[in-house]
Amino acid sequence: MATRDRLSFGRFDGIATSLVALATVLACTPVSAQTVAPPPAPVSDQAEPTLDPVAPQASPASPAGDAQAPASVNDIVVTGTRITSSGFNAPTPTTVIGEEQILKNAQPNIFTTVAQLPSLQGSTGATTGTFSTSSGSQGLSSFSLRGLGTIRTLTLLDGQRVVGANVTGVPDISQFPQLLIKRVDIVTGGSSASYGSDAVGGVINFITDTKFTGFKANVQTGVTTYGDDGQVLFQAAVGKSFANDKLHVILSGEYSKEQGVGPGNFGEDLAGSRDWYRATTLVDTGIRNNGSPQLLYRDHGQAYQYTKYGLISAGPLQGTAFDVNGQPFAFNYGSNGVPAKNAAGNVTGCYVGFCVGGDQSGHVGSGTSLQSAIQRLNGYTRISYDVAPDMEVYMTANVAQVKTHNQPNPGASKTGLTIQCANPYLPASISAACAANGITNFQYGLSNAILPNIQVNTDRRQYRFVGGLKGKSDLLGTSWTYDASYEHGINITDINVDNVSLTGRYNQAINATRINGQIVCADAAARAAGCQPINIFGGTTPSAAALAYITPAAGPFQHTKQTQDAAAGSISGEPITLWAGPLALAAGIEWRREFYRVNADPYGAGVSDVSPNSTLYPSDPNLNSTIGSNWYAGNYKNGTGKYTVLESFLEMNLPILDSKTLGRANVNAAGRATRYSTSGVVYAWKVGGTWETPLDGFRLRAVTSRDVRAPNLSELFAAPTTTTVPNFTDPFRNTQVLIIQNTIGNSALRPEIARSTEAGIVLSRPTWLPGLSLSFDYYTIKLKDVVSSLTAAQIVNLCFQGNTDTCSAFNLQNTAGPNFVNVQSFNLASIKTNGFDIEGSYQWRKPLGIDGNFTVRALATHVMKYVTDPGLPGTIPVDTAGANSGATPDWKWLATESYDNDQFSLTLQQRWFSDGVIGHQYVVCQPGNCPVSTANNPTIDYNKMKGAFYFDVGGALNVTKQVSMFFKVDNLFDHDPEPSPQTNTGLDVNPALYDTLGRFYRIGVRARF
């Protein structure tokens, strides 16, 4: 029965040396560490600050509230609302990670601590994107709530936006001043009415200690159980008040270096002694209607178009491979495969493009970095001055640099090469076989192990400055808080790729001939341009001159400058006292400008005034100077774009009930009007409320909202690329035409619109068990007009079928010039997701009469549905909830148990997500009972992916009242990741869910004076 069930750094020199150095620091210096954190207050879901590692539904003070020294300590600003009010409970669930949890997790980047929360799904960091050359997102640490993607989660620093570290607009958490962060608020619900665009999945607000006084430092190091990803972290901060405490100055600095992991080598060898890679592949039988599954789940899948040192892949000599010495041998295809020796290059007994088993030496997937190397420097200062008792003027400056390095794959695999039988590098036996079979050339493929491996180096620099004025003033008998600020941020990203071959030059270099006894490039123009021949039959390393020609020292580069200017002003107060309490209001106006400009090398972008030829990139007749795209990978393009945003918002909190019998209740409502220079006016709103019932500790809450995400700079103004496409089908005239395909942005994109609803119940510190807090929240999100990319054929066919959105994107009868199709994004797709969150904690003071505190905390998220509808004819919606190849497992939870006293602390942590499937689109069946396999619902013989359980342990010892030593072991049992097979070759693992590094050890010292 059928059932339906994704910079070059030097080596880390001497881990042992680092450990010795750290021990010396511990023994010989007065620098010390944060003591074991004091016992946390009981978990609270009230609007009050907390250091609870995970305080269920706590509504802590937001940065604005924390920074408002002039304001009353009872005035609280809750992340997720702009209301300043005492005793106000926001209806939107908010999770808090306090300083204590940050310290206990002992991560070199706070991003990792936050990303462990179950509600965060699909976040990107140093272990994701390592297979990519051109994305520009390698090592970029950014969050995704609810699996909706990083572009739909708004990340703030002290309640203010941060300039994007990528043209998608997402910031890099690695550039934040991490030592000064005292709390992270995670709002798991739509918050566009309060904070504007991008807050569809929610808001993550990093809150710094704006009044920090004293000195603190942190030094730590770490390494995996395999001896790689060596890490060092140095952090220090100082804060001091002057002028009778009116002037306050804070300085902090950080240096962090992570060596990274990988790559492995060709074949199935991973970095270190890791042995979990099996080249698991979904091999395609190519048969859809014979009662057997189309796709087969198999380990040791081997592409049969190439090998490590070369393979003749079609024709009468098919199946002839070459060893490292250039000697031919019969290739072992696996699957008992026999080469058909036809022009198509088929292999009898194998599958579409793959065999199973056989010669595994040519795999390239294991040569991908498992984690990017990352080095970050951060400097931060905040200076504030109390102009009056209720007025503070302040400025902050944050300068940061993050460098990353990764290897996307080894060599530069090539298939379908046409090799002349007269090539002088060929063994005599192959030349003779060519003659015997009456051929003059053959098809060839190789992994190009003879070429140096591609290296991607990314350098991001952020310069961010904020100035502001905040305080409190009485007006008409009402106390109003106010906050005005201006932020200017610059992010400069340079991507340099080393060891990349130029396709045109490579093709000339492999086309060798013999002239006057010398082996040279066959093309005279190429020889004149410096062409040097290479031998691609075996493992002979090309000469230095040949490598300089094929892989020049000046490789692909991209230089991007992004700027963000943001001005904001807001007020909040309680102008009227009503029957159930004061009416609280907040209002404000905000303006923002986003800009980017990117320029690239002329070989990738094409020669232009922006990217001219130069001594580093000289003119070459063998390269396409008009279109560019000459590199094997890393063909960056030039582009620019900008937009402005003007917004206003109004929010109110209306108490409607205050009764000893019936309890207390309030209604919270907000609205925001936003004008985008690209798409006009759009509105966001929310309506919610809370009811503190008469039942001891029980509170109900609910909120519904309309949220928006505006298209980002990349979607609106993507750097254009151009491709000539012959024989393109014109469905209007049922003929074939030649077109120019222009891949561009779409400035006509509309904002995405979401409807979000949450409803929950909270049990908070009942008198019968004051250490207990529990909460349950159901959520549903419906997102329409989702920006999605289309192919040229899809764009034309949609118009042909009556969808007018795409009709302006092409002209297939262009009398004024060539026919063209502009390949761009459109607002066509939709997403629907729902599920629920469970959070709980219990604190036991003096357990069994022992001094100290024992605390248990747990968070869990269950994704019931995550359905994406592409919105295209011929496609169907796909539910990815529970698909462990993606970002949204059925269940994900995080639990911690900790004991703390004045001398030491011990913490246990468990991270788990449930078993799942590869994809729900597949129909599982066995031979003899399979339905017809279709593009939307392919048949498959196995569709399971195991979940994972990770156990972490950590502890700290107070050496003095100011100094503590700590340790942390992540993934104590060294749990291996599960394969995430695709229908092509690659590493085929999902680092967004699974730990790919293995057991990790960290030790360190903290100090605070």
How do the helices and strands line up, and which of them pair or pack?
Elements: H1 15-28, H2 63-67, E1 76-77, E2 84-85, E3 94-98, H3 99-105, H4 110-115, E4 153-157, E5 160-161, E6 181-187, H5 192-195, E7 202-208, E8 214-224, E9 231-242, E10 247-258, E11 281-284, E12 295-298, E13 301-303, E14 311-314, E15 320-322, E16 328-330, E17 338-339, E18 347-348, E19 354-356, E20 373-388, E21 391-406, E22 414-420, H6 428-436, E23 441-446, E24 455-475, E25 478-498, H7 503-510, E26 512-515, E27 518-521, H8 524-528, H9 544-550, E28 557-578, E29 581-600, H10 602-605, E30 639-659, E31 663-676, E32 680-692, E33 698-709, H11 713-717, E34 721-730, E35 735-743, E36 752-764, E37 772-789, H12 792-800, E38 810-811, E39 820-823, E40 825-845, E41 853-869, E42 878-879, E43 891-900, E44 904-913, E45 923-924, E46 939-940, E47 948-958, E48 963-970, E49 1000-1008
Notes on the protein architecture:
With 1009 residues, the chain is mainly β. It is built from twelve helices and 49 strands. It is globular and about 100 Å long.
Give a concise summary:
The chain is mainly beta.
